[in-house]
Amino acid sequence: MVWVKLVSTSLITLIMIYMIYYSLVSIKAYRGNFKIAPHHKARTKFLVLIPAVNEEAVINIPVDDLKNQKYPKKLFDVYVIADHCTDKTAMIAKKHGAKVITTEMGLNVKRHGVGKSNTLDYGLHYLGLNEWNKYKYVVVIDSDNNVASNFLQRLNDYAVEFSEPEAIQVHLDSKQLNTL
């Protein structure tokens, strides 16, 4: 009986040490000194993908914001992937300056996954490896997001400052359409 109490007490102690350690690591990360990247000359190529299913009411928001980027137009392309849309999403996106991929364009493209990941997978397969390998980063933006006019420039700044990391994660606040 003493043996069981000793083992259980040891395990509980180890778990507590583990929890305390990771709590301290998390707190330290939040208090860390984050480096703000200075401005760098635009040089990074971005492939911007906007997956959309029946988003005619909001698709113009990110497309217009991206069209008005303070970043050289030759260094980024905006594609709206209008997946199984039954509305005018594709037409509106094209009218506002995006390149559009529709479900009907790639009937021979095998589909994988469900939801947004399926739409992105479809769009990337449709573009093909040779096309999207022309870009350094793939940026995914929701169809109802506002995008700051310096968004791509700031991504470029961080990519250059930190020697082109494998991935850069950013946060965008969403603008949701009020349908009530």
Automatic annotation (TrEMBL):
A Pfam entry, by short name: Glyco_tranf_2_3
Enzyme class: transferase
EC number(s) on file: 2.4.-.-
Gene source species: Lactobacillus delbrueckii subsp. lactis
Name of this protein: Glycosyltransferase
UniProt keyword annotation of Glycosyltransferase present: yes
Keywords (A to Z) from UniProt: Glycosyltransferase, Membrane, Transferase, Transmembrane, Transmembrane helix
Keyword Phosphoprotein belongs to the record: no
Family recorded in the similarity comment: Belongs to the glycosyltransferase 2 family.
A GO molecular function held by the record: glycosyltransferase activity
TM segment ranges: 6-25
InterPro entries in the record: Nucleotide-diphossugar_trans (IPR029044)
